[in-house]
User: What shape does this take?
Amino acid sequence: MNAADMTSWIRHAAELVTADVDRLTRLDSAIGDGDHGHNLDRGFRAATEAVSGGALPADAPPGKVLVAAGLAILSKTGGASGPLYGTALRRAGKALGDSASDGPSDGTEVDAAALGTALRAALDSVQNLGKAAEGDKTMVDALAPAVAAYETALADGSGLAACVRAAADAAAAGAEATVPMQARKGRASYLGSRSVGHMDPGAASTALILRALADVTGEG
Assistant: This one.
């Protein structure tokens, strides 16, 4: 993946979030504030603007694209979504490096191993910030299995596109798995047993974002 591919990922993620705003809002209305869909839509629209139309130098490395997107989300997204998603993208970008001499990539192209390192950094940042673990009914329940599936596929010798598809499939399954869970973190935890039976909106949107990455890396 190069900077153009990273930009395409952010744009496509924004498209998927926009198309799914109503569902994300319904999910969050059931166990949260009801603003997750619109907040994330606003954040990813801002992220798209931050990485498109000459907003970045033509020779910006892939990591810079993710850092810029993360900063835009941090500044434009309300609720818990901004810090979590913005920080995840920023940390992923920083893990790739800001120049040809930084990070595991060569500065212009990101291979499967480098992307795996970036995704692991994103997960670590979310868990450090939100103090959530798998089973707490949060976005971690989609992101953690996604990263694990990616790393397993990578260890088995799969290429970047196949690794990302494995991650996206695991994220979708992880989001579905939150339905029978009782929330232990966030606003949903205040509902106790009433949080059971609803998909976590953060896990749902995380699955969308990874689906967008799989769509982009699977092209061609």
